[in-house]
Amino acid sequence: MKVIQVFSILNLFLMAEKSPFREGASINRPPLFCGLNYQFWKVRMKIFVESLDRGIWDAIEHGPFISKFEKDGVLIEKQWSQWTDAENKKAKFNCIAKNIITSALNSDDFFRVSQCGSAKEMWDTLEVTHEGTNDVNRARKHTLIQEYEMFKMLKGESIADVQKRFTHIVNHLMSLGKVFDKEELKIKILKCLDRSWQPKVTTISESKDLTSLTTTSLFGKLREHELDMNMLNVQESEDKHVRNIALKAAKHKNNQASSNESEGETLNLLSRKFSKFLKKNRNKDSNKERYDNKKTSDFNANSYTCYGCGE
Predict the structure, then answer these.
(1) Which residues contact 61 (CB under 8 A, 6 or more apart)?
(2) Are strands 68-71 and 74-77 parallel, antiparallel or unpaired?
(3) Nearest-5° Cα angle at 228, 227 to 234
(4) Domain boundaries in the chain?
(5) DSSP string spanning the chain?
(6) What percent of the chain has pLDDT over 70?
């Protein structure tokens, strides 16, 4: 019975893998980090924490809240028993953040940050572990900047693929501190397209809506134009196919007509030759008959005289 249940679970899992619609992540639990694709997890983690409370993310980004009071021009930390309810709530954000971070890590990363005293220290440790030091980030930033400057549309690439690659590079650069001007991004998108897009690029560049367009809207216009061009190409290929079929049919008809004509000419030629042959044979027989008749009529024994007897 247990074996049947195991197979049923496996079948359900395989069906879910093949299904075009899969369940998303939970909105009540932090995204689990498996040790790969830290950039993706980092962005999702920030979105999840901010959805709970902005104060929790502030504790991760800037450190825990510590209540202090000023005495003789010097800030002195308050004793915990003297904190107000509002101060206790702010301080509690650090504990909540630590709980969220540790709940989202695998065992290896958990032991890396388990001894950290604050959520900020945990977050910084994960960044250094998976993104590297400032020197590493600087080298990565220079590499991505070079990719951005050399970015071009590949041969046979769709607008959706171009948008995916372009957004990936820009998002990584922005996470590393690179600041882009919106106008610069739109100009870069138009310049990276190949020669076949030149008429559409010219139309968009000369329009007054370019300044008000976002990069997403610009890619939307390009994808709309791409769909129209694909429809025209399909229609042209279908028309070409129909013309080829009609041309083949007409060619076959002409070949058949010429074949029939050549067969008729061959029959006429054979008929003329046969008629000539029959006529020739008839003339030959007629001449032979006249020759025989003439030979018979010319031979008469009475018209000859014997040389011996004179009769």
Answers:
(1) 120, 123
(2) antiparallel
(3) 90
(4) 24-131, 134-216, 223-279
(5) -HHHHHHHHHHHHHHHHH-SS-----SSSPPPB-SS-HHHHHHHHHHHHHHH-HHHHHHHHH-----EEEETTEEEEPPGGG--HHHHHHHHHHHHHHHHHHHTB-HHHHHHHTT-SSHHHHHHHHHHHHH--HHHHHHHHHHHHHHHHT--PPTT--HHHHHHHHHHHHHHHHHTT----HHHHHHHHHHTS-GGGHHHHHHHHHSTTTTT--HHHHHHHHHHHHHHHHHHHHHHHHHHHHHHHHHHHHHHHHHHHHHHHHHHHHHHHHHHHHHHHHHHHHHHHHHHHHHHHHHHHH--GGG---TTT--
(6) 77
Q: Is 73 left (phi over 0), alpha (psi -120 to 50) or beta?
A: left
DSSP state of 300: -
The per-residue pLDDT for 205 is 79
Lowest mean pLDDT among 18-32, 60-74, 180-194: 18-32
Please count the other Cβ atoms lying within 10 Å of the Cβ belonging to residue 93.
22
User: Strand, coil or helix: what is 94?
Assistant: helix
Q: How far apart are alpha carbons 192 and 194 in whole angstroms?
A: 7
Is this prediction's pTM over 0.90? Answer: no
**DSSP states of 105-158:** B-HHHHHHHTT-SSHHHHHHHHHHHHH--HHHHHHHHHHHHHHHHT--PPTT--
| Mean model confidence pLDDT for the chain | 78
For residue 178, count other CB atoms closer than 10 A to its CB: 14
pLDDT at 7: 42
Average pLDDT over residues 19-46: 78
Residue 121 has pLDDT above 90, yes or no: yes
Joined tokens for residue 310: 């004179």
Q: Give the type of residue at 138.
A: R
Q: How far is CA 288 from CA 278, 282, 296, in A?
A: 15, 10, 12
